[in-house]
Amino acid sequence: MKNILLAKRYAKALFDLAIEDKVLDAVKADMELVTVVMSENRELRKLMTNPVVPPARKKLVMRRIFEQHLSTLSLAFMDILIRKGREMEIQLIARYFGEFYLDYKHIAVVTLTTATPVDAGLQEKITGIMHQRTGKEIQIDAHIDESLIGGFVLKLDDYQYNASISKVIKRLHSDFDKNLFIKGF
């Protein structure tokens, strides 16, 4: 819990600075890049989470990796995180920064999971319906899960609508397991 609150505070501070300096989109791209690099590079993660490695070495490594790719604000922010010993939270901070960014831009990300690929026409219909419900611009994050058999699962924040065939089959299976003719069931 402490790490989440800490990450949100740092993310909010970076977000406010990015708005103030009018580099919000650049910093958003920077945070996405840092997240990808950190998640794909195990050695970098080990280095950043190793308490034996001195902060100066961590700063040097981060500068060499990202100097040509990140904005000045993002590089300075990374330096501050390392100086304060918060480098282990970089990915979490980047995630919360992304959430602040989406909220600020009035964008909602809808996760659509289907058994087969969805055509563009259906995605547009879903986007339109969700836009009417939320009043926000909608981005669809489409996934394929063949175990659904058919139908779809739609997720937005804490809301989930499951209209999959597998759910119907599970419900029917549980209904058949109930014996309505024996007392106690």
Mean pLDDT: 94
Using only C-alpha atoms, the radius of gyration works out to 22 Å
Please count the beta strands (DSSP E, at least 2 residues each).
4
CATH-assigned fold name of the largest domain: Peroxidase, domain 1
Query: For the terminal residues, how far apart are their CA atoms?
Result: 42 Å
Provide the number of structural domains: 2
Net shape: elongated
Taking the sheet with the most strands, its summary is:
4 strands, mixed
Counted by DSSP, the helix tally is: 8
**CATH class type of the largest domain:** Mainly Alpha
Q: H/E order of the elements? A: HHHHHHEHEEEH
Helix content: 55-70%
Summarize the helices and strands and which ones pair or pack:
Elements: H1 2-20, H2 24-40, H3 42-49, H4 55-66, H5 72-83, H6 90-104, E1 107-114, H7 120-134, E2 137-144, E3 151-156, E4 159-164, H8 165-177
Brief synopsis:
The protein has 185 residues and is an alpha+beta fold. The protein has helices at 2-20, 24-40, 42-49, 55-66, 72-83, 90-104, 120-134, 165-177; strands spanning 107-114, 137-144, 151-156, 159-164. It has two domains: 2-103, Peroxidase, domain 1 (Orthogonal Bundle); 108-177, no CATH class.
